[in-house]
Amino acid sequence: MTAPAELVRTLEPRHYTDPEAFRREQSTLLSTTWQFAGHASLLENPGDYFAFEIAGQGLFCVRDHDGAVRGFYNVCQHRAHELVSGAGNRRFLACPYHAWTYELDGRMRAGPNTRSVVGFHREDICLTAVKTEVFCGFVFVNLDPDARPMAEWFPDVDEALRDFVPNVDSLKPVEWIDVEEHCNWKVSVENYSECYHCAINHPTFSNGVVVPGTYDIQPQGHCLRHTTKCQNLERMSYPVDLDAHPRAGEYSAWFLWPLFSFQVYPGNLLNSYHWRPHAVDRVTVWRGWYTIDGVDSDVVSRLAIQDRTSTVEEDIRIVESVQRGLSSRGYRPGPLVIDPAGGVKSEHSVRVLHEWLRESLDRP
Length: 364
Hints:
The protein is an alpha+beta fold. The protein has helices at 14-17, 19-27, 150-153, 157-164, 185-192, 198-201, 203-208, 298-326, 348-361, and strands at 35-39, 48-54, 57-63, 69-73, 87-89, 93-94, 101-102, 108-110, 129-135, 138-142, 171-181, 216-220, 223-228, 251-256, 260-265, 269-279, 282-292.
């Protein structure tokens, strides 16, 4: 007789509820993976910069005088004061504490009275850089100095996304919202990464955008590729010009492990998800919509409102209920529904997320 296959179960609740588990993720997973920093349109000119935080670390990105986008830890090498806040433009970087200054490429420029210090050589002092890439017009950083390039982490995503959105480098944010969710970031990401729940919980998305029965999600490197057929034009919840582009009638998404996703709605409309974990039970989801040069679009505005008032609100209720349930004494890790054929009623993509999580946590 063939031995019965062992069920694949969900993670233990402590992975979602234990503050120590979250701290470990910050020092391992979130510090060794590619993280979204901001859109490249914030860095159009030399000297443009913006500050942000990843894994509890203050960082900033800046475009230098040669046009390169650079990322640094947001800390002066003198007495550890933060260098910048918010966003803006500077000819050079000046620390507000003692006025030490740095070139846009991170090299020390000058410091009051430092020439009087015996043995002081400003050439030896430089801001601490972080790996930085501009990927399809979006800026990503990785705190791991030995990190492999994004093209190796997410093979073929650049080419595939450009096939759907050829003008991706000309896009700018036109609509965006911050959505607060009182749940662990993995609860929200796992919910996003399966459509087993879509027909039950997302009637507008399921009846007015996609055909849920055709939805599938498959791994592609450390990316989960979402594909589905779209509704007929008469059932679509917004107008789509099918003649505008060969891919105009398609929907696709690329989730880049662990905290970012590109989505292309029918009509070649790009939007993005970015999860920003703050605590073991709190995450902000930044939802962005884009147009060429950030020009207002009635279609995008209507779709963004529709999405916010339907799918987003529906997901908030789901993930916050799951987080409460994970703290229940009555919960035991349940079996994932894994269909060997894949498809919308399979949670194989959640199993992949758990494998990637374990892979990250096992790193020394």
